[in-house]
Structure formats: C-alpha cells, structure tokens
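Self-study notes.
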Amino acid sequence: MSGRLVSTDPATGAVVWEGAKSDPAAIADALSAARGASIGWADTPLAARVAIVRAYAERLATARLALAETISRETGKPRWEADQEVGSMIGKVAASVAAQTERAGSRETVSSFGRAVLRHRPHGVMAVLGPYNFPGHLPNGHIVPAVLAGDVVVFKPSEETPATGDAMAALWRQAGLPDGVLQIVQGGRDVGAALVAGDIDGLLFTGSGTAGAHLRRALVDRPHVIVALELGGNNPIIAWDGDPQAAASIVAQSAFATTGQRCTCARRLIVPDGAVGDAIVDAVAAYGDRIRIGRWDELPEPAMGPLISVAAADRAREAVAGLIAAGGGVIRAFESIPDRSGAFVTPAILDVTGLRVPDEEIFAPVLQVTRVADFDAAVAAANATRYGLAGGLVSDDRDLWDRYARRARAGVLNWNRPTTGAAGTMPFGGVGASGNHRPSAFYAADYCAYPVASFEADRVVDQSADWRGVG
C-alpha cells in the first residue's frame, strides 16, 4: 500500500501532482483523529457549522480560477467545464444549508400530553470515496452536507485526481474547519478498501456499479454503517419526433458531454424504425462530427477533452470491439486522434438493433442505436437494463412524455433536455444497480444524520392516571 502516487495531465502526460500514498498507519491515524474530533464537532452549534461552510464557499470563489485549472489538468476537461464544476461546488453550499433546514432540522408539536420533538443527530465518522470525472463537485456533494450535519469526514479522492482533493482540503482549513473534522488519505483501491474496513459509521461513494456492488458485499455484516451509493448507468434516451437537428443537439450532449464520462450520459439511443429515426441518427452523427476536441487550454475552446487516461481509452476500445464482434454496425468509428495522446478519442455511434449486447456502462463517448417499431417498444427497450440512473425523451408530444414518465424506471428523467442535466435543489440518484435508494444532492441531508423522536415534559408529573389498572 505504501509508495508514491502520481497524477498526470491525460492530454500531455505532464505530472500534475506527486506524493506519498497513505499507508495503514496513516489511514489509522486519520480515522483516530476523526473519531477524536467527532464529539466536539457534533456539539458545535449548527449556526457555527453553517458559518464555516459558508466561509468555505467564499474560499472556493476566491480560488475558482486556480481550482478549475487543477481540475482541468488532472481530468483533461476543458477550462470552461472545470469552471462550471467549481461553480457547482460553490452553489452546493447554499443548497445544502437549505436542505439541512428543510430535511434534517429540529421541530416540535405541543399538545395536552406534552411536546413531541424531532431532532437529527450526526452518524459520526463518514468515509467519502471520490470519483475522477467530477473530482471536486461529486465528493463536495457528500462532504458539505456531512459537515453541516455534524459528521466528521475521512476523504479519499480518486487516485487519478489527488491534486484536486488536496486543494479542497486546503480550502476547508482556510475556512476555519477544526482539526480532525476533515482528514484526507491518498491512494488507490487498496487505500479505499482499508478505509472502508476501518472504524467508520458511514460510507458515501460515487463510482461504478461494479465497485458499488463490491462495497455492498464488504459491508454486509456491518449494518450499523450507513451506506449511500451513487453509481453509474446504461442510460437510454428515446428520440421520437421533432426537428432532427434540435433532437441531435440534445442527444449528442447527452452522450458525449465530458467525453462520455458522466454517470448520466446516454449510452443508448432509441429511435423509431424508418425515415424519422434515420433522420435523427444521421443528424446525431453529423453533430458529432462538428464536436471540437482538444486540450483543456486550447483556443478556440474544445467541447471535449481526452478520456481520463490511455488505459481508460483502451478499455473503451475493447468494449467497442466487442459490440462490433457481436454484429454492431459502425455509424461512426471509435478512433484515436493523430498527433494526440492516446487518451484522445472520437465519439462513436454503433447500430445494435436486434442484437444481444452486454448491459454495461461504457464510460466513454460511445452511443448504441436501437430502432423499434412503436413507442411501447421504445419504453420497453429503455427499461431493459439492470441500471436505473437516468433516462430521457426527445419529443414534441406531451402525451408520450406522460406515458414515459409513468413507466420509466430511473431516478433522473428529462424531457427535451440532455440526460446529463440535473438540479442541485432536487434529489439525485437511481434505482437497480445505479444506487441503493439513498439519493444525493438535495436529499444528501437524509443520509448524513438520523432522526431522534422525543416525547418531553418540563417537570416530573405522576403518570399513574394514564396507566390503567394501578391501584
């Protein structure tokens, strides 16, 4: 487990960050420090916790350009997109304060029998495992509500993006967060496994369905550990009618935003068999051809950067090769880009109509097209997955949307908007292999604290009159 950890710019291979991996002793020390800080932080008045969290938002705003550059260099995403990510991190604070009040606050009801009081208490030590695709925004979405709730956090960033995690921890310190309330450990899966095996009260994880299933098994005998899993999806988008060019803009953003590295990216495009479907597919392919691909700092600005690594591109190539071997027709090939790092790829579109293909998330700009006879078949095809994170419909027909919204099995469902769009003031999460019924975003307050219901009176009163049968 010990050794050095290095993150590199996937566009150039340049080293972005280098440091020591956390060894077992460092992980144990982080957990011990967190446990030691937990009582004091839980006893800190909510108003004081809110003040520190708001100070953190101010530090994020001050450091916005620098943090966005760090995110861009580690992930390869364009500067404009990294800046949007930091903006989402800042916005998360106000949304989380509102959610804490609305979903996890204190309230009481007074009656002739006394007061019924509801309070919420923090769980204690929360382990947060962050992903690489949104290395700031997604772990931030766990950390902010946990800190507000009075929890303490041990945070392991993705091994692909340690610099972003370090920068976040530094901003929390600058905001005045007490020692021990947020600890950071660095490393890969072995470090994450050691953290999960340690003395924790909760695990907050964003990542793949495969990793989520492994974590469920690892914690099956520890029911006291609350687990919130935000996992991926083999997400469908049905494009049924409307202007093909407008539909293509929605489908392409759904499939290819962040180089296909969003858990809500559309992986499957379902269209009507015939001329309407052909026009939509052709328009999506033409739109994909117009996407500018480049380094994060290039001008004019690119729409897409590289994948997170050459290894990630190789895994995606293997998955695409499997689809082609199964009979998939190539509408647009998944190709490397000459004179670029091997992490750069072009958007791929494959026709898999009528084929049995793996129900797997390909975390890359790869779109699989299925043509169906009618809308009922489209909904059935959309739901034909063990995942259930996101889905979408592109159509001018409100009745079709109402039918789809009733029948779709997904936690994020969009109409005439990209599947990648989600509001921070709403819950975010999926069903099936996409989560464990603990949605994040506005509902993160629900899993960061537990409710305590009390029945109270201000003085000791003889209760004999209320207990029948006592002489």
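Second protein, same conventions, sequence then structure:
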Amino acid sequence: MALELQRLPGHETIQKDVERYAEADASAVETCLHLLHIAGEVEAAYGAHLARHGLSQARFIVLMQLQREEEGLRPAELAERTGVTRATMTGLLDGLEREGLILRRAHAEDGRMSVVRLSAKGRQRLEGLLPDHYRRTSALMSGLSAEERQQLQSLLTRVAVGIPRVRDP
C-alpha cells in the first residue's frame, strides 16, 4: 500500500521546516511535493482504470511492450525495458500466461531461451481497453495547449537530471 499526502503542507509550514537546514530551498521542496502529489494521483487514477480491465500497471506495461514487438521479446529484454528484475518479470509473465494473455515459446536459434509474444486474447484485451485509455490520457492533458505540453515535457526532462542526486547515498 502506497502512502500519499492527501493535503500538501502550506508555504508557511514548508518555509518553517526548511529554515533549519542550510541547503534547503522552500520553493524546491514545495514544487517537488506538488509534483509527487500529482504523480501519485495520476498513478492511482490509471491503476483504478486498469484494474477495471483486470490488469495492474505492471501487467499493462508488459502487454504494451509485447504489442509493439510482433516477433516477441525475451524475458530478459522485457525486464530491462521495464526496469524490473528478471525474477519479478518471471512472476509477471507466469500470471499473464496463466490468464492466456501471452505465449512463451522456445527461441528459434537457442532453445534454452524463450520468446514471449502477445496471445490473441492479450491483443483482444488491449484492443478493448486502449481506446478508453487514450481518451482518458487525452482528457488528462486537455487543460494544456500543445506548446504547454511540450514545455512540461522539457521541464520534466530537466527535473529527471536531478534524480541521481536523490538516489545516491
């Protein structure tokens, strides 16, 4: 269960908190909290939408990767593309296979490896949800002009540059 702030602290509260720390910037903290809050809200909304179609976000991402690769992908490639461990991917694939949404076959050149493909049922599941999914995504971004969307992408790319500074000990 993810814990989220449902009500962000006010500017004055943040200002009081950061005054105790020399390198703290109240504006940076406030902006980051706002970004985290909105990201959590978007993730929860998509999670609820996908759950109505019997999918988790992780399973949806795997199916989308497979939809884009007609020849299929090796489990290791899927793990790399989605940023999860091979063990996690194996668990995801086991569940998708049990449900009949994917097919695992021996690799044509190396029988020790397998290739994962979207099954007809998996393709059908995606076709059933993607029109609504893309409609919802368009509605989410409808408050922004095309230029503002481009600016947002650019800004988020710049924010991403700082992620290693947060990760590193």
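Instructor comment on the second fold: The CA atoms of residues 76 and 86 lie 6 Å apart.
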